[in-house]
Amino acid sequence: MIDVYLPGTGGMIPQKNRWLSCCWIEHQGQAILIDCGEGTQIALKECGCKISRLNMLLITHFHADHIAGLPGLLLTLGNNGKTTPLIIVGPVGLKKVFDALTVIAPVIPYPIETIEIRNDEIEKLKMGEMEISYVSLKHSIDCYGYSITLRRKPRFNPEKAHKLCIPEQYFKRLHAGNIVQLDDGRVVTPKMVLDGERDPIKVCYCTDTRPIDAMIEFAKGADLLICEGMYGKMCMQNKLEEKGHMLFSESARVAEKACVKELWLTHYSPALIKPQDYSDSVKKIFKNSVVAYDGIHLTLPNNEKTDK
User: Fold this and answer.
1) Residue positions annotated with a catalytic role
2) pLDDT interval class at 24 (50, 70, 90)
3) Is 281 within 8 Å of 251 (Cβ atoms)?
4) pLDDT tens across 87-109, in order?
5) Which structural domain range is residue 29 located in?
6) Among 10, 76, 99, 286, which residue has the fewest nearby CB atoms (within 10 Å)?
């Protein structure tokens, strides 16, 4: 299973009731964080995320509301006893930005690896069993959307195993895809006790962009698409075209065309006081739209939204 949290849903500046946009994705005690604006470490704590589990940080782009919280996050990790490596991924120029920001955090008690990505050198990254891919978006500077995919093992069928009189001590190895030989000499293959392939779990995160065709293909069939909605009013479209952002309705159309299972809207303008007022209108375009809020949580594939 994958746990997805939005500790913050705001754009530009943190507010009293809304932290800056970021996303926490966790599987089996290993976590990925997307973006870290000012105060992200506080937002993570309020959301209930265990910061000690963070192993990879994905940066969408180098605007302050998405990366200016890096020094504070790194120091907080150190103060929480982190000693294992942290991988930071972002656009070309990441190392230069990292070096500049960490002048005020010169002592980090754990290794850090920076990886710069390029749209013409697309490759998948991995964190534990999670695969990370990326797509170039359309913003005022280089900006990337990220997709996290978990390819699930086939279901283990204990009834099949018991009928074959297989001792339970071999169950875990068979579920992992290993062939085992029993004490009586019989050879058991995983196919004999598994129920077939399961669909992967896919979460996509795209913010600070205009809607482009590449987003639709990138998010195709996702269990969850998290996409920005700076404003709900159509009258703001010209302004957003200039700035490289999206309306609620534009995000909903991307979700519809990509045939995703659920859409979460995020990255609201500070001027958008009540984004939930546009919930009904966006649902008319894409039924499974959620106007997200700080602290929203979803466990996939259970589809159970909760607060934490």
Assistant:
1) 65
2) very high
3) no
4) 999 999 999 999 999 999 989 99
5) 2-152+199-307
6) 99
Query: What confidence category does residue 254 fall into, taking pLDDT thresholds of 50, 70 and 90?
Result: very high
Name the CA dihedral angle for 6, 7, 12, 14, rounded to a multiple of 10 degrees. 160
Give the pLDDT band (50/70/90) at residue 216.
Answer: very high
Detail the DSSP E strand segments found in the chain.
2-8, 22-27, 30-34, 54-58, 86-91, 112-117, 125-127, 130-136, 144-150, 180-181, 187-188, 201-206, 224-228, 263-266, 289-291, 296-300, 304-307
Same domain, 127 and 238: yes
Predicted TM-score of the model (pTM)? 0.89
Buried residues in 279-292 as b, exposed as e (16+ CB within 10 A): eeebeebbeebbbb
Kindly state whether residues 121 and 181 are assigned to the same domain. no
Structure tokens at 54: 């963070």
Please name the amino acid found at residue 274.
K
Domain count, the chain: 2
